[in-house]
Amino acid sequence: MTVRVVVADDQELVRGGFAMILDGQPDIEVVAEAGDGVEAVTAVREHTPDVLLLDIRMPRMDGIEAARIVCAETGCRVLMLTTFDVDDYVFDALRAGASGFLLKDVRRDDLVHAVRVVAAGASLLAPTVTTRLISEFTSRPAARRVTGLDVLTARERQTLQLIARGLSNAEIAAAMVVSEHTVKTHVSNVLSKLGLRDRVQAVIAAYESGLAVPGA
User: Fold this and answer.
1) Where in the chain are the domains?
2) For the structural domain made of 126-216, what CATH number should be given?
3) Using H for helix, E for strand and C for coil, what is the string for the chain?
4) What percent of the residues of the chain are helix, what percent strand, and what percent coil, each to the nearest 5?
5) GO molecular-function annotation terms (predicted)?
């Protein structure tokens, strides 16, 4: 199965470089490129890709608003691009429905892997970057607090805490001394009960609810 991708970045060299890398893979096809958020949304509507590789800072419409529209209107998965040191909006992008993010200096193999992971319906959590982001944004007063965690069982709450730490299913299974199949069931129950689309939103919910604490 070929993964169809739209690459959106206002820097032509960056956009072209990513497109060339991805298009060179036997299972990935770049169906369109976009130079701003408006073009990105239009390209997704016209080409119905599986993944939108989307820069955060772009003219006319930024990546956050573009991600919000794409995630609300289509089944396309959004993978954000950021320089991190200057971008203050990654957390908002994840809230908008993005399935993960990459630094612009990402290695070739990691870029290809990330697109495949997101296309398969999973989320991409880079633990080192995620920890720094969560710490920064959750140190600020939250606009809203996620409630309703009482619907989770004790084991499901524990699973959510471990997801927030960036652990894989195998690592969670080892920590909880259960099978990986049991962990998958717990993860599925957490997402279903809290109305979350993937592990990225689960991480956000854990920190916003106070279940997970930066630096803990």
Assistant:
1) 3-124, 126-216
2) 1.10.10.10
3) CCEEEEEECCCHHHHHHHHHHHHCCCCEEEEEEECCHHHHHHHHHHHCCCEEEEECCCCCCCHHHHHHHHHHHCCCEEEEEECCCCCCCHHHHHHCCCCEEEECCCCHHHHHHHHHHHHCCCCECCHHHHHHHHHHHHCCCCCCCCCCHHHCCHHHHHHHHHHHCCCCHHHHHHHHCCCHHHHHHHHHHHHHHHCCCCHHHHHHHHHHHCCCCCCC
4) 50, 15, 35
5) DNA binding
For 1, the token pair is 């199965």
Query: Is there a contact between 89 and 95 (Cβ–Cβ < 8 Å)?
Result: no
Homologous superfamily (CATH) of 3-124 is Response regulator (3.40.50.2300)
- Reported as half-sphere exposure (CB side, CA atoms, 13 A), residue 165 has a value of 15
Condensed to tens digits (0 to 9), the pLDDT of residues 142-200 reads 544 555 788 999 999 999 999 888 788 889 999 999 999 999 999 999 989 988 877 87
- Please report, for residues 25, 64, 82, 95, 105, the alpha-carbon distance to residue 87 in angstroms, rounded to integers and kept in the order given: 29, 11, 6, 15, 14
